[in-house]
């Protein structure tokens, strides 16, 4: 586990996120796990700094030719990076100069004579570096060698430690890890310096940190078009991937494996390159012992037909000898490379294990045990002691077998999978944590499969990632973290965060994940816009947490309730896009491509994916309401949004960076699941008629459900006034009372308009009132009923807690009036998690479950609630999904001192469509409902208790008789502290709508 510099939590964001680790170029470095005596230094060319370039001259870079090939190669990247910044290319030397004012020395402890001499002389401080995993020190040494005045020494504890030290220096002078993959510019400076004092990168929290390039059709298309026309992801592409991984301080890869890609070992340069870069290559759960079953089994089987001429099937109970030889051939072929060896077996191409002669679970367990024993024997014979790490991945059906008794050798690393949607299925118990092989995880940032796929954009909330990764680390899963990143592009931010946490899991906390975004944005675009970009990305992730853009469909969000919840959501997207464009217009021209790739396109694309289905839903509603020209208007808007989405994707692929990314981004690939395409809409033939129609909020058609107004929440409501034909119609609106405020008094319309209704609370008398808004036109008068309750300003000011109105109480879970810690556990706020601005989580994740005596044993959240009536009411707790397939996911609630009700959430990932688990991952919440009984009006206390740890709660809604059916929770109820002003209720502001 790395150690990080102590931080003063009272310090503001600027010092915390920018001055920490500031480079001499005015950019924020992203150096996880690094300690530096310069961490608080301002950006300037200070006395004592080491100049890499000054007055048009670059210092030479020395690396011993006898050092590891990965170190020699990385020294060449430093040479190129110095030239990128300073415009002058240093010489790369393998012999020491006789005389030099300055020299960069790159070397590995134990492999570089120069470094070893400096260590022996006490000139280079390698404490807590030497003998550690992938650690390094970067330090200026005066008179290190005869004839050399000063040297910047970059020394690693092993080959990758040295490589990471090299790339730390590149970051410190302003070269982003994403300089190539996201076109982040490198700012030119005539003088390039680094601070003189020692900078140490201590060993990482997680030993193996890497990615799975998966479901990679777009990457394959791009690679074939722009990198290697004769291949489908070959060495040239992998060189770029390897370099990116190392710059992100990763060390591990599961390569592309689908039918449309060349399998990794097809091109022998691939494993050779990985070795030269220092990348450990493994294989995914269906690819035992580095074998790609999609491509390699069929030709192998064809060459190893049975005595009767039959082609063997990939079933160990049928053909164990042929399959064993198949694995052995790859073990022998790749024995010389640093590899990770996947044990166990699944079917070909990510299918379930086939066992013709083992039909029961115990029989399949026995077969899996035989498979593992066979594979271990192969590795011992062909690879020997170098056959490590070995991993076992209990993915999907294999998890059931593991839990039923598969014996995994103690020195094999258990790789625990999530449910493919960011929720860990189970975590190691005490016995598993004690295993010599340790534990790791396989976690998805991109996924193809049930219930829905998300392959297009980076949409997993970073706070959600933080919550799960923190949890797995606390449970001892620290040996290997693999992240499914799809095509690599579009996952830039999420991948950076995951690698940052994998290096130093303690660097970010529950309250500062957004600070990571600010620091990361500052690293890519400079500090000026970093906070704004971070806020944009945070809100982008929040909207995706409500529903990923790839999961959007017809009729998900209500267009009639809660002020048009779908329209309010689209208004939030619209404002977000405006903010993104405003920042994009301010960043220097050189940064525009990177900004489009990393900020604008994700926001704009997600917005348009939602927008086209919003207009399609409005189109369908218009048909039910009997609208005329407006029906066609909505159809046009839906298809226009889809066309705009295609246009910005075309821009990404053909214009950004001069067409560099041709084919890399495509929501609609041909061979893998697609994002929702152009929605079907209805168009009406034109008729030379007109007529007046009205639909009030809360009603699909008509005005039967009154508009509800409360002096606490001070809402406004909408009334849609529309034309039932195609010829213009005049309309007018009037209110029955002077304190009813209308956004318009009338006009002429061809399609439709939205009339907003509010209350002038300073003028309305106290009490309950009925009122009307009358809309007239085309010979019709349509009344819209209003129910208005004014308890007075004094009552509003004196009210404590959340106040019931409109037949419900809506609470953001983070807004507890009191939190009570008990039994060594507590509820904490996780900012940026869930559908609101934050959620609450029961921690620590390793706390013991509470099954009774909750009021004295369980950490508690208390919410004051003011009820206007009595009755037995449903209470729905919006729990953020989490799993425990060997345990439970429970919490408990009570009203006042009444008996406690335990709510049990979904604990198992079924992998099905349409069931509770599927709904949870599609919606991003699980709605758990119990009832409470209110025996008298007035103030009560709703109490929420932890039963199982690591439960996160987002919102709580109490239905007192008026809650409409909608996808999202209603806007939060009035609370004198947490919600003193009404929540913004805005529709999409478009012409004639």
Automatic annotation (TrEMBL):
Gylcosyl hydrolase 115 C-terminal domain: residues covered: 801-972
GO BP term, pick one: carbohydrate metabolic process
Taxonomy, superkingdom: Bacteria
PROSITE patterns, sorted: TAT
Keywords: Hydrolase
Single Gene Ontology MF annotation: hydrolase activity
Keyword Transmembrane: no
Protein name per the record: Gylcosyl hydrolase 115 C-terminal domain-containing protein
Organism listed in the record: Streptomyces aurantiogriseus
């Amino acid at each position: 586990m790395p150690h990080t510099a102590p931080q003063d939590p009272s310090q503001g964001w600027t010092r915390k996120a920018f001055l920490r680790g500031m480079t001499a170029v005015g950019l924020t470095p992203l150096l996880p796990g690094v300690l530096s005596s310069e961490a608080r230094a301002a950006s300037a060319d200070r006395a004592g700094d080491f100049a890499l370039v000054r007055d048009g001259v670059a210092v030479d870079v020395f690396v011993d030719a006898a050092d590891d090939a990965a170190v020699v190669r990385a020294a060449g990247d430093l040479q190129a990076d110095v030239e990128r910044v300073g415009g002058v290319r240093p010489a790369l030397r393998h012999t020491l100069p006789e005389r030099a004012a300055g020299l960069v020395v790159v070397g590995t402890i134990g492999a570089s004579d120069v470094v070893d001499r400096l260590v022996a002389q006490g000139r280079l401080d390698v404490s807590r570096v030497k003998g550690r995993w992938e650690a390094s020190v970067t330090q200026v040494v005066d008179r290190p060698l005869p004839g050399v005045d000063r040297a910047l020494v970059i020394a690693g504890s092993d080959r990758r430690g040295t490589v990471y030290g090299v790339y730390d220096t590149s970051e410190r002078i302003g070269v982003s890890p994403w300089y190539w993959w996201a076109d982040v510019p490198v700012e030119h400076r005539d003088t390039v310096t680094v601070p003189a004092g020692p900078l140490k990168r201590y060993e990482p929290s997680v030993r193996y940190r890497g990615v799975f390039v998966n479901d990679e059709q777009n990457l394959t298309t791009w690679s074939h078009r722009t990198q290697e026309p004769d291949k489908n992801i070959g060495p040239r592409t992998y060189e770029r991937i390897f370099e990116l991984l190392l710059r992100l301080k990763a060390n591990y890869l599961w390569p592309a494996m689908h039918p449309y890609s060349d399998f990794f070992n097809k091109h022998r340069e691939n494993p050779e390159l990985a070795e030269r870069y220092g990348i450990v290559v493994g294989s995914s759960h269906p690819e035992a012992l580095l074998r790609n079953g999609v491509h390699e089994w069929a030709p192998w089987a064809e060459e190893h037909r049975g005595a009767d001429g039959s082609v063997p099937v990939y079933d160990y109970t049928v053909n164990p000898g042929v399959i064993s030889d198949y694995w052995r051939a790859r073990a022998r072929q790749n024995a010389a490379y640093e590899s990770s060896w996947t044990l166990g077996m699944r079917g070909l191409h990510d299918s379930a294990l086939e066992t013709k002669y083992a039909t029961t679970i115990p029989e399949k367990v026995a077969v899996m045990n035989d498979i593992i024993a066979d594979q271990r024997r192969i590795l011992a014979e062909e690879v020997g002691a170098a056959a490590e790490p070995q991993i076992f991945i209990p993915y999907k059906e294999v998890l059931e077998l593991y839990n039923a008794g598969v014996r995994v050798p103690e020195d094999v690393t258990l790789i625990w999978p999530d449910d493919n949607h960011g929720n860990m299925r189970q975590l190691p118990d005490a016995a598993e944590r004690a295993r010599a092989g340790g534990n790791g995880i396989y976690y998805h940032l991109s996924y193809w499969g049930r219930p829905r796929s998300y392959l297009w954009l980076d949409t997993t909330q970073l706070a959600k990632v933080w919550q799960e990764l923190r949890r797995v680390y606390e449970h001892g899963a620290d040996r290997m973290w693999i992240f499914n990143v799809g095509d690599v592009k579009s996952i830039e931010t999420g991948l950076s965060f995951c690698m940052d946490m994998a290096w130093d899991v303690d660097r970010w906390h529950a309250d500062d994940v957004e600070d990571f975004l600010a620091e990361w944005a500052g690293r890519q675009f400079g500090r000026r816009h970093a906070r704004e970009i971070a806020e944009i990305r945070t809100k982008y992730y929040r909207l995706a947490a409500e529903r990923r853009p790839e999961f959007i469909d017809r009729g998900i969000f209500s267009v009639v309730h809660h002020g048009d919840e779908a329209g309010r959501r689209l208004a939030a997207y619209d404002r977000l896009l405006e903010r993104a464009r405003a920042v994009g217009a301010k960043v220097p021209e050189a940064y525009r491509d990177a900004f489009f790739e990393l900020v604008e396109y994700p926001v704009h694309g997600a917005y348009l994916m939602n927008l086209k289905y919003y207009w399609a839903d409005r189109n369908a509603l218009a048909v039910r309401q009997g609208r005329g020209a407006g029906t066609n208007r909505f159809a046009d808007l839906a298809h226009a949004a889809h066309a705009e989405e295609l246009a910005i994707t075309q821009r990404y692929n053909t214009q950004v960076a001069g067409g560099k990314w041709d084919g890399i981004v495509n929501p609609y690939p041909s061979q893998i699941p697609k994002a929702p395409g152009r929605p079907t809409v209805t168009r009406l033939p034109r008729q030379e008629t007109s007529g007046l129609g009205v639909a009030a909020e809360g009603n699909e058609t008509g005005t039967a459900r009154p508009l509800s107004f409360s002096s606490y929440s001070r809402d406004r409501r909408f009334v849609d006034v529309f034309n039932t034909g195609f010829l213009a119609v005049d309309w007018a609106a009037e209110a029955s009372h002077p304190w009813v405020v209308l956004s318009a008094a009338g006009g002429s319309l061809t399609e439709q308009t939205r009339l907003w209704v509010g209350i002038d609370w300073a003028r309305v008398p106290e009490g309950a009132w009925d009122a009307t808004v009358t809309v007239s036109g085309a010979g019709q008068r349509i009344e819209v009923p209003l129910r208005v309750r004014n308890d007075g300003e004094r009552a509003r000011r004196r009210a404590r807690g959340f106040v019931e109105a409109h037949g419900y109480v809506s609470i953001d879970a983070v807004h507890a009036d009191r939190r009570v810690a008990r039994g060594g556990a507590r509820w904490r706020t996780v900012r940026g998690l869930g559908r609101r601005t934050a959620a609450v989580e029961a921690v620590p994740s390793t706390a013991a479950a509470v099954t009774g005596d909750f009021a004295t044993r369980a950490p508690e959240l208390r919410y004051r609630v003011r009820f206007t009536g009595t009755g037995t009411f449903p209470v729905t707790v919006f729990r953020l999904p989490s799993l425990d397939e060997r345990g439970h996911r429970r919490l408990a609630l009570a009203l006042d001192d009444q008996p406690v009700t335990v709510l049990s959430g979904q604990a198992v990932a079924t992998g099905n469509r349409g069931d509770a688990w599927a709904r949870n991952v599609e919606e991003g919440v699980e709605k758990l409902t119990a009832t409470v009984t209110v025996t008298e009006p007035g103030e009560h206390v709703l109490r929420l208790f932890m039963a199982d740890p690591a439960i996160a709660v987002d919102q709580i809604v109490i239905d007192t008789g008026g809650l409409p059916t909608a996808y999202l929770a209603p806007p939060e109820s009035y609370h004198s502290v947490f919600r003193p002003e009404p929540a913004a209720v805005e529709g999409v502001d478009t012409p004639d709508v």
